[in-house]
Amino acid sequence: MIGIPSSGIHSNGYSLVRKLFFSKTNSFSSDSRFVNTIMKPTRIYSKLFSMLKNNVHIKGVAHITGGGLVENIPRILPDGLGVELESNSWPVQKIFRTIQENSSLSSEEMFNIFNMGLGIVICVDKKNLTRLQRILAAKKEKHYIVGKVTNSSNFSII
């Protein structure tokens, strides 16, 4: 599984972020860097996906929206398959660390709500992994091997 970075929190979690950071007792609303970060437009991945699907056999693509990584990745898998996601395999953007540090959200809740820095996750067979990586590198597209599909129906974050 290959992860492509997100451009920020995208469209999921805005209500929670607003509640946590824009109350009368919070100074984040006056921090222009913070506001600019959360207001960064959502990246659109359609051109990238169109190019990839014409050049490598893709088994599935999960667009990480509401429900975070935990809900979106399993949706693209057939019954009986699961995911082992390696949480240290990509850089989690500062905005997500800021959200967690200033809230009572656990790591598990963060992965259930936010994209945690991954906008899409692409599933390919092992035999196509190197080809996909070469194509992404040639396009100067940041990407990370973020996990693997397993023969259990579990979703685990390690």
How is the topology of this model organized?
Blueprint (H helix, E strand, L loop, with lengths): L1 E4 L8 H8 L10 H7 L7 H8 L6 E4 L4 H5 L9 E4 L8 H8 L5 H7 L4 E6 L2 H13 L5 E2 L1 E4 L4 E3 L1
Parallel strand pairs: 3-7
Antiparallel strand pairs: 1-4, 1-5, 2-4, 3-6
Structure description:
- With 158 residues, the protein is α+β, with helices and mostly antiparallel strands.
- It has a single domain (2-12, 42-157), classed as PurM-like C-terminal domain (Phosphoribosyl-aminoimidazole Synthetase, Chain A, domain 2).
- It is built from seven helices and seven strands, in the order βαααβαβααβαβββ.
- The chain has helices spanning 14-21, 32-38, 46-53, 68-72, 94-101, 107-113, 126-138; strands at 2-5, 60-63, 82-85, 118-123, 144-145, 147-150, 155-157.
- The strands form two sheets. Strands 2-4-1-5 form a four-stranded antiparallel beta sheet, with no helix packed on it. A three-stranded mixed beta sheet has the order 6-3-7, with no helix packed on it.
- The chain starts with a strand and ends with a strand.
- The mean pLDDT is 85.
Major sheet strand order:
2-4-1-5
Main sheet attributes: strand count, strand direction, barrel closure = 4 strands, antiparallel
Number of domains: 1
Mean pLDDT: 85
Number of helices: 7
Distance between the termini: 14 Å
CATH superfamily: PurM-like C-terminal domain
What is the fold-level CATH name, i.e. the topology? Phosphoribosyl-aminoimidazole Synthetase, Chain A, domain 2
How much helix is in the residues? 25-40%
Unreliable stretches? none
- Gyration radius (Cα, Å) is 16 Å
Task: Give me the count of strands.
Answer: 7
Query: Which CATH top level class fits?
Result: Alpha Beta
Beta fraction: 15-25%
Anisotropy-based shape: globular
Main structural class:
alpha+beta
CATH architecture heading? Alpha-Beta Complex
User: H/E series, N to C?
Assistant: EHHHEHEHHEHEEE
